[in-house]
What does this fold into?
Amino acid sequence: EATNLFLRENGHEVLKVMEPQLKKKLSVLFSGIVNQLLSHVPVETFLLP
It folds into this structure.
């Protein structure tokens, strides 16, 4: 309960401190997902005639 109260009152500050780390981790995560998805798509799909 104390944690919830703290986060409710200070959530913006906590997020501001964590934002750079979150951005980096999410970037790595989404890059991995996109790379896995695109590895199954032939290169020719992206080439213009």
Q: What stands out?
A: The two ends are 61 Å apart (CA to CA). The mean pLDDT is 95.
